[in-house]
Amino acid sequence: MEEAIRIDRELAEAAPDRYRHDLAASLNGLGLNLRALGRIQEALDATEEAVAHLRELAEAEPNRHRPTLADSLHNLGAILEDAHYVEGALRAYHEALTVWKACAEQDPQLHGASYRHALSNLRKRWTVSAATMMQQHSRLTR
Q1: Of 70, 50, 65, whose CA–CA distance to 119 is shortest?
Q2: First-to-last CA distance in the chain?
Q3: For residue 7, what are the contacts with CB-CB under 8 A and spacing of at least 6?
Q4: Where are the domains of the chain?
Q5: What is the Cα Rg of the chain in Å?
Q6: Rounded Cα–Cα distance for residues 102 and 56 (Å)
Q7: pLDDT 10s digits, 13-58
Q8: Rounded CA gap, 16 and 9, in Å?
Q9: What angle do CA 135, 32, 91 make, to 5 degrees?
């Protein structure tokens, strides 16, 4: 996978309009693989870079890049959650939800289900995270 990233970087440097999305997708995939291996910091680094590229791409071409940005933000949230960065994870999940909402407003048939799934995911995460934060707070105040 790292060889593919190296090649994608070279292509993206030579022709960013054509290959930068591919680089971001490869970095996102690398982040997922590293997460599965328990290499959380490396997964976080790769996914944060993917999200940075996708934010810029989505600014220029929202209809094309927003869905991939939303997926990558969700993955970032999961990695942050694995790393016990609850607030960062919630921010990433919330941003993913916001992006999915924009996608669903543009094309409800294509993106409505993804938006509803992201909304449900954030509700579940918020409930669990709020309970976790309350437990941590009560331990600190004893």
Answers
A1: 70
A2: 48
A3: none
A4: 2-140
A5: 16
A6: 16
A7: 999 999 999 999 999 999 999 999 999 999 999 999 999 999 999 9
A8: 9
A9: 45
* pLDDT value at 142 more than 80: no
Q: Does residue 128 carry a pLDDT above 90?
A: no
- For the CA atoms of 84, 90, 93, 96, what is the dihedral angle to 10 degrees? -130
Query: Domain 2-140 - what CATH class?
Result: mainly alpha
Residue 138 has pLDDT above 70, yes or no: no
Instruction: Mark out the alpha helices in 1-142 (DSSP H runs).
Output: 2-14, 16-36, 40-60, 62-82, 86-106, 108-140
**Burial classification of residue 58, based on how many CB atoms lie within 10 Å of its CB (0-12 exposed, 13-18 middle, 19 or more buried):** buried
Eight-class DSSP state of 108: H
Task: Using the structure block, give the residue that is written with the tokens 């600190």.
Answer: 140
- Say if CB 92 and CB 45 are below 8 A apart: no
Q: Angle at Cα 80 formed by Cα 76 and Cα 81, nearest 5°?
A: 115
